[in-house]
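Deliverable D2.4 — example input (structure tokens):
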């Protein structure tokens, strides 16, 4: 049985909540600290963006400033998100551990077993692992997770979602227009769930910690001993990490590689995304979709064109549900629809519609 350390950070301020574990990872990697499990609730709301994102493209930074929401860029990838005290974080940092596989996909598979079993014990019996990095309940995301390596240390971070402010989550993101925001908020409600929604009475943060700690030890054959962060870990955080993560240059730096794409897409949960693109043909075509992988779940086709009969576009949108973002399949579906209905869209061809919809695929 491996001997690990457990740190309960309580409800720390956002920079500690989001980045302190990286100071621990430095110490674990250097052999200064033992393998460690950290748990906490953010002490205040904040917005977090992934390492490969541009803040000004992803986040409504003016809204965040006006509402006192700090923006923090994490050192790992992933998408932008809103976080608050209604989530319990677990942060796992290990070196040379039998409990933590080195390969990221195996790390997710092994460690998310702990999360799944903890949800079962909390009453969410439908919880299951969804590769690569989610836990779902009744098909809806109920835990998001990320993994990385720092020098010799492996890291996995994730959460239990007690409740979620879907409107605030949608509000902090930069979107083309309010219709897109409304669609995004609805999609979040459709594909993300919480302990509050799944159970008559959600457990307290303390109960979640208690169950997770017990399951962590049982599933991974690990013994946890509660302790406080070391002086060296606080020094690493205050002297090396905080100055970087709180600097304007870090938060607002351009993404390390080009992320310029024709349109906007937001990941909702696992493989669900909401996207919008414009395509200029003889007339402007605007496509807004909700997709699962490359399958169209819902689609809205608008623009400055006109169709005869005008209701035909609504019927085409219905026809495209379940179709995949593949040239031949799209082209055949649209062509069959045109033949069946006799719809006329002056200035817009079959190829125009196909290419407009295919632009969504670039964003996925």
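Example output (designed residues):
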């Amino acid at each position: 049985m491996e001997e690990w350390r457990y740190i309960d950070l309580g409800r720390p301020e956002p920079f500690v909540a989001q980045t302190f574990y990286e100071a621990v990872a430095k110490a674990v990697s250097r052999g200064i600290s033992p393998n460690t499990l950290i748990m906490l609730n953010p002490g205040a709301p904040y917005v977090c963006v992934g390492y490969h994102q541009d803040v000004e493209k992803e986040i409504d930074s003016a809204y965040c400033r006006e509402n006192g929401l700090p923006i923090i860029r994490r050192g790992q990838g992933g998408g932008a998100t809103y976080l608050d005290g209604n989530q319990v974080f677990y942060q796992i940092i290990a070196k040379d551990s039998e409990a933590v596989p080195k390969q990221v996909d195996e790390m997710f598979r092994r460690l998310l077993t702990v999360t799944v079993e903890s949800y079962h014990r909390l009453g969410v019996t439908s919880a299951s692992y969804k590769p690569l990095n989610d836990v779902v309940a009744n098909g809806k995301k109920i835990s998001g997770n990320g993994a990385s390596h720092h020098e010799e240390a492996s890291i996995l971070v994730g959460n239990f979602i007690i409740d979620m402010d879907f409107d605030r989550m949608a509000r902090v993101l930069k979107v083309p227009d309010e219709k897109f925001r409304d669609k995004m908020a609805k999609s979040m409600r459709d594909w993300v769930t919480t302990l509050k929604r799944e159970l008559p009475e959600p457990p307290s943060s303390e109960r979640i910690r208690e169950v997770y700690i017990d399951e962590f030890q049982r599933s991974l054959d690990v013994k946890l001993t509660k302790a406080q962060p070391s002086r060296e870990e606080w020094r690493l955080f205050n002297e090396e990490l905080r100055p970087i993560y709180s600097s304007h240059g870090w938060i607002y730096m351009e993404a390390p590689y080009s992320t310029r794409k024709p349109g906007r897409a937001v990941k909702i949960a696992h493989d669900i995304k909401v996207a919008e693109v414009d395509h200029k043909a003889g007339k402007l075509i605007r496509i807004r979709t909700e997709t699962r992988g490359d399958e169209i779940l819902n689609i809205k086709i608008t623009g400055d064109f006109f169709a005869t009969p005008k209701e035909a576009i609504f019927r085409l949108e219905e026809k495209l549900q379940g179709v995949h973002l593949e040239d031949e399949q799209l082209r055949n579906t649209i062509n069959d629809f045109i033949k069946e209905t006799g719809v006329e869209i002056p200035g817009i061809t079959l190829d125009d519609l196909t290419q407009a919809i295919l632009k969504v695929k670039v964003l996925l």
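The chain has two domains: 2-251, 271-363.
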